[in-house]
Amino acid sequence: MKTRELSQLQMIAMVILRVMIGWHFLYEGIAKLMKGNWSASGFLMQSKGIFAPIFHWMANNPSILNIVDQLNIWGLILIGLGLIVGAFTRTAAVAGMGLILLYYLCNPLWVGYYYSIPSEGNYLIVNKNLVEFAALFVIAASQTGFYAGLDRIIHKLLHRKKA
Q: pTM (2 decimals)?
């Protein structure tokens, strides 16, 4: 089966998607950083489901919670920057998928589990986190960082032939 490359319009759409998701991650990370006293504790304590004991343990252990908070803030910032500038795009997209998966598993939308913090809508299994997860999967599977981003430059620098 022969694969075909994306058209210019399709690649532009992919780059726009990548930058918009990058902005979302970057903004969330900077907002948490600027708040100064932000913590994932409340979110983790609301956890339901089979992974709830792990998330509760994280929230109840101050040293672990501090690590989780810092990884969350700086993960969001670095993933966002990577997606915006198209640097290590595939790595940033996969890391973003991992982070979003953790958010989803912490408070799943499965039947019988009710997340007590109000959200902006009613969902059954699929929410904005899973939609963003799927979009990051598409980005990870594409070469948008080579089309419009720093990935092409990084690739050339890392794979220069030695004279």
A: 0.86
